[in-house]
Amino acid sequence: MSKQTTQLTTFTLPASEGESTSGNYLVKKYLFHWPLFLVCVVAFIIAAFFYLKITNPVYPILATLEFKGPTSSEGTVINKSGTEQQLDPISTPVIVENEIEVMQSKKLMYKVVNDLQLWVNYTSKDGSKSEDLYKKSPVNFQFIKKNGSIDGKGVKLEILIKSTNAFTLVDDQNGNKDFKYGTPIKSDFGSWQLLPTADISNYIGSSINVVIQDPDQVADSYQSKIKVELENKDAPFVNLSTSDEVPERGKDILNELMAQYKLDALSDKNKDAQKAIDFITLRLDSLKKDLTVDEKEIQEYKSNQGMTDIASQGQGFRDIRQANIKALNEAEIQLRILEGIEKSIAQSGGKISSLPPTSAYLSDPSLMALYDKLTDLEVKRTQLLATVPPGNPMFDPINEQIQTLQKAFKEKVAALKASQLAIKKQMQSFDAGIQSGLKKIPEQDRAYTAMKRNQESKEKIYTFLLEKREQIALRYASTVSDAEIVDDAHAGKAKWPKPSIVYALALILGLGAPVGLLYARESLNERISNRKQIEDAVKVPILGELSYQEDTEPIVVSQGRGKFAIGEQFRVLRTNLSHLHGTNDSGRVTLFTSSIGSEGKSFVSSNLSVTLAYASRKTIILEMDLRKPKISGVFNLSPEHEGISDYLTERNTNLDQLIQPSGIPGLDVLSSGQIEPNPSELLEKDKLDQLISSLRERYDDVIIDSPPIHLVTDALIIARTTDASVYMVRQGHTLKDELEFINEVDTSNRFPKFTIVFNGIKRDKFNYGYGYSNSYYSSYNTYTEKEKESFGSVLRGFLRRF
């Protein structure tokens, strides 16, 4: 017979058993386990109640600090030179972001922890709740001598207050010991003592727990709780916040933190100011010494160069040279006049008849007086010549006087010329000296200017530092902090625990925990538990679903009332099988197989055969699991009877002798026969095709029970003779990995009209009852009796909802 390759595209169950939408699916899935949700919600609500009873409330603590004076953000340019900022640290603008980091530093918190002695904690037990005795402790722990550091867990001491004078140190290992207050006690961590406080009388007979911790670790703990925030970058207000179970302690921490910050900031400013003053003083002393050296150097230079004021001295040299030049010019003029007179005398033969016109510029009055006398005598002689002859003795005295005056005049001219020559030479020599002096002045000016510049530069620095030291000294004397407390630390309303939030969280956790538990349980389950897992993993249609039956009877389908639920499920499967085969109403061959054993293929194939027989369809079931036959045992037939293997080996080909009645009208059985060592080879023979063809002609339905295909290939060989194939998947037994194998089988088209039957469904065990309604079955209660349920079955069903 040719291989059937027609594929089934879809199959649906009746509306009463149809699965709900995805949303309803999830809701009903988890509502099925409502007892688990109820228990978890109640448990979490109870836990929340006790949590609220034993948990101490935590209070928010707030404070506000304002920065006064010049402030700056990290990106702002400060309008001061670097030198002024370094020399005047007091008035340097405050960078608020930097100060926030300082306030959150461990250094400050460490000081706070030590000042407030937060490394010692006192508590008393009041029932199940512990009370912190901050500032209310009846005793005060004090170290006398510390031995190293305390480990991370700290040291716990239990103190029993006996009276106002003595206490008992509870020690389970070495025994209890009584001590008086103030008595030194030696322990592994050091020597210590307890001192009574004003509240000692209120705690007589009470047990006090004292916990001593490492201040470093305590500082780390409190530091992590501190938040310092700049509310607005344009306004220098900083908000400090923390939280604590004891509001008084939280307020003390913030107040002490702000006080320590202001004290440290002021101390740092004073230190910086003192450093600046010391530096300036040291620099002033150095400059003073340098100035003294420079001034002495200038003094020595002036003395060596004969300088007083180089500017006035240069001007004097210039004035003297100008006067010298003038005098030299005058001497030159006089020489020219005298030379003109000598020339005139020489031309007149030694007679002085008249002087040149320039003689009027002669500066010597004696020469001019001689000239006037000589001129008068010449005039007188000329007058006498007019009346007296030249040889007259009267001319002798006049001529003698003239000669004498001429000689005196010549000698005077020569003397004046020699005098003017000497004056000229002296003036020229003096001018050369003045010019030499003037040439030295630029070099002297350069050297003097360099020395003066160096001295003036140091003098300016000296003056600047002197003024700056006075300014810093004045500010240092009146230094105030840049920060001012706007709001002291104050506590708000308890922020945790809030009953409404705690109970809401308890409700959420009470609902979420079962969901997580069920999801994890389902995710960790490697076996198929519901239909949706099949539908999500494979495209093979599901022909039907069958419930799990606890009965030991292999045939659970009856013609009468009987076990109505499973019977109706097989009837639905019978109907779906008819739709699967379509128009083919007779000689239908259906193969039943599975992945592995114990998935219910023999159970389903035998009970479906019975159902078909009850529907007046002539049916035969073939026991073709030639390795482990089960069908004969289902119908209580002899396993020794000849069957399929005998037919295939041709030991007996008489079907009438091989076919056995099942005991149910309309249903026959063809058993496997003698077990052969080579069943796969037998099934490959054409004899199998002949067998199926013969059975098609005799029966309406031929049901084949075949071996699992994941173990042997028998079912794949038999498939060539069938019209439809039904693959068994059993809830809680078939592995999820087998779904991938089913996809491979479906993709290879090795089975005709490949479908799945979901078998062995325990609706109340595998979260499966939520998807189905029992209305379809209960509607038949008018003519079928409802099965009675025992208390044990009800209890088991209830417990399965967990």
UniProtKB/TrEMBL annotation:
InterPro entries assigned: Bact_polysacc_biosynth/exp, GNVR, P-loop_NTPase, Wzc-like_C
- What Pfam families does the database record attribute to this sequence? GNVR
Q: What class of enzyme is it?
A: transferase
Gene Ontology CC terms = plasma membrane
Q: What is the protein name given in its UniProt record? A: Polysaccharide biosynthesis tyrosine autokinase
The record, for SUPFAM superfamilies, names: P-loop containing nucleoside triphosphate hydrolases
Q: Which GO terms describe its molecular function?
A: ATP binding; non-membrane spanning protein tyrosine kinase activity
* Membrane-spanning ranges: 34-52
User: Which PANTHER family does the record associate with it?
Assistant: FERRIC ENTEROBACTIN TRANSPORT PROTEIN FEPE (PTHR32309:SF13), TYROSINE-PROTEIN KINASE (PTHR32309)
Q: Which UniProt keywords apply?
A: ATP-binding, Coiled coil, Membrane, Nucleotide-binding, Transferase, Transmembrane, Transmembrane helix
Enzyme Commission identifier(s): 2.7.10.2
Coiled coil (residue ranges): 263-304
Tyrosine-protein kinase G-rich domain: which residues? 450-522
